[in-house]
């Protein structure tokens, strides 16, 4: 029997699956045990654009009461506190929570951080004017999360999402970064039909692409419909 070459399509496919699984495990660890390296890795894989991508949501946030789901290392938290908003944050990572708490304390802000899951928000209904999520890969398409967001928003409140980014430059390093972001799920193909289940929950939806010099990001705004006015 002829031995299958390691360079055969099946062999290459197996190696690719192992590589992708290893990368995803690495990013899970990065958000938890290795959270202290998160900013450096995010800077590298985004070619320095990560913080600029996150900050692009700021003009869309009016407050005053804002909940950030998945606050990570806290860059948006610090910006929102600096603008005088009443800011809450939820994240399931104990390591990220500690990093963000210390960052806010250094700014003499008042941290309102909670550990928990996006699909079970530990807040009363109609608590927030706005909810914001940036790069929420693990719960981007989770309907339970949007059900909870709808519950905690005030009527006509909105959720601002920054779910995906793409490196669009054609230089060798930019093409390599684009491939890596695709592998780890940060640069999936965009299909607006994914918004249909969210619309059925009682949201109106709007999306737009925001361009950077060598990248672009997708911004989605969900507005909670005022059911009381709709029923009149």
SSE layout:
Layout: H1 9-31, H2 38-45, H3 50-55, E1 65-69, H4 75-82, E2 86-91, H5 94-106, E3 113-115, E4 128-134, H6 143-152, E5 153-167, H7 172-183, H8 196-200, E6 203-212, E7 215-224, H9 227-230
Parallel strand pairs: 1-2, 1-4, 2-3, 4-5
Antiparallel strand pairs: 5-7, 6-7
What report would you give on this structure?
The structure is a single chain. By secondary structure, the protein is an alpha/beta fold. The protein has one domain: Rossmann fold (3-Layer(aba) Sandwich). The protein is built from 9 helices and 7 strands. The chain has a 7-stranded mixed sheet with strand order 3-2-1-4-5-7-6. The longest helix is centred in the first third of the chain and has 23 residues, at 9-31. The radius of gyration is 19 Å and the shape is globular. The termini are far apart.
